[in-house]
Design brief:
Neurolysin, domain 3; two-stranded antiparallel ribbon; mainly alpha; 26 helices; Glutathione S-transferase Yfyf (Class Pi), Chain A, domain 2; five-stranded mixed β-sheet; 693 residues
Length: 693
Amino acid sequence: MPTALTLDPSNPFAAPSTLPYRLPDFAAIRTEHYLPAFEAGMAAELAEVDALLADPAPPDEENLLLALERTGALLDRVSAAFWNLVSSDSSPDLDAIEEEIAPRLAAHHDAIYLDPRLYSRVEALAARVESAEVSLPDDAAYALEHLRRDLVRAGAGLSDADQARVKEINARTSTLEAAFSRELLADTNDSALLLTDPAELAGLSDGEIAAARQAAADRGHAEGWLLELSLFSAQPMLASLADRDVRRRLYRASLDRGGRGGEHDTRAILLELVRLRAERARLLGYEHHAAYVAADGTAKTSAAVQAMLGPLAPAAAANARAEAADLEAALRVDEPGAQLEGCDWPRYAERVRAERFSLDDAALRPYLELDRVVHEGVFRAAHELYGLDFTERTDLVGYHPQVRVFEVRDADGSEVGLFLADWYTRASKQGGAWMNSLVDQSHLLDEKPVVVNNLNVPKPPDGEPTLLTWDFVITLFHEFGHALHGLLSDVRLPSQSGTDVPRDVVEFPSQVNEMWAWEPSILEHYAVHHVTGEPMPAEWVETLRASRQFNEGFATTEYLGAALLDQAWHRLVPEDVPTEVDAVPAFEAAALEAAGVTAPAVAPRYRTTYFNHVFGGGYSAAYYSYLWAEVLDADTVEWFAENGGLTRGNGDRFRAALLSRGGSGDMMAFFRDLRGRDPRIEPLLVRRGLTGS
């Protein structure tokens, strides 16, 4: 029988936090607390599971399903805090812990899910339910269904030899995924472009220049300006930089990440990952890893994924080629005879947008100050829709000095949870934007949610306002949609809380929330000049709305390039995975050509060597999910419009039908509850200008 380790009572993870909402006590937590808490947490959970599996009573909801839900509390506490910190404020010491603990956690998971006693008791309970000997409430019945499937997908039905090999693969892939993220972050930091000639800054706003100078100072440069890289291929500052050579250097630095050779090259890591994932899928009875992943989502098959993505690619690429012709004409005004390159696209897209719609991003930024967008935009929309109120809790400490903590209360004043906001980029933070959960809502455990949003907004010098691009505004609303999915969860079982839904629909609520950035009654409150207090001119707002489909060919093509590239890598069988790192760019080029998503000057949103979503995160063979979920999103936006838009009644209906239910049932059934039918793709095609596909 496993024996639980004793954790020093002085360790902040030894007992549940006594802070409001069980917020981790970040003021007390130190790096040296994590590893002992992980070890004690794994030992404790194994002992807890062993005890419930030794129960001689026939399995039922209480002694199996609910007992399982109650296990692992210590491990959950330390895991939530640690993995949030690794992505948002890592350090060499945390990296070392991650490298050690990742394979051990994979082995721990396998020790539970491949225990034949668990498989036997789960199947026995299923038989009792099927024979009507016992009955289960809907959420428990759904949990049982998922547990049975998860055990099989973990390898419970395999021979001992094959189970042993699956365990080896799981341990190794967890190590490789952590290594990919770690090396990518290091190479992204190393690839930041240092400028020393003030003339090279031409086109940047005063705020961008100040942020670049601050970034250089933070990295130890006594002089110069540092242009840090975002995770995307097309860097935001390409839209502003006037010097084409600087744009080329910045764009090349972006595209070359992870593939330049040297200590931070990611190619060997990702090739081994692809090969191991393919081998594991075969052992588990799937054609390839893409099929294994699709079967766990609402898509069900990789053929269904291809059937949705494939027909969109030619139409999107055709739109991108038409857009490229317009941009090249604008480029040639500055440089006669020049051919459009990827480094030019953002700048000349902004120019054409400004000429066509009399508006550019630089003109908008003074009206998009971060705090106002958050309070009068993101929070106001949540209040109008769901009755939520937000109060900053300066007495509560986040995991980094830049983190702000907000208490969330419902319309009746009752407690909802905590929202932590971490807006700014830093060298220790991964690129991109995301939501994490520190405490999952659960009635069984009497826990309310604590959720985090992370962005990578360049931080201006102290005292300067943080002025956003429109893209950052949309990202704020998007990530807060994930936060709402966690905050408004109202489920009994912690395993079904909030965003614990199939990967290919997890983006659905977040994408729906983007619509409120455009809502006139919301926009008029947050789009206000940060100095004069004047609202954004009405004609600008109308122009902004009119331009929503502008550059959509580019946006769809770069997205499809990444999604289809993800599918191409993960549709390989083990024997077909390249063995040499130099084969990576050739495979990538061939995959994009075969998919029909090649267009002049349009790179995939992420190239293979810096595709952290699929090689370092949880989106392997699932990057398609953004567009898959957007089908539901676009149809839901249409539902809101048909029913009066931003009203409390609509918000309450959406909350009750979808946001509150987490993963306690079939998400497609939840959608049908809301819409009264299956989703239609037509609203998405109209939104993206793909009606001819």
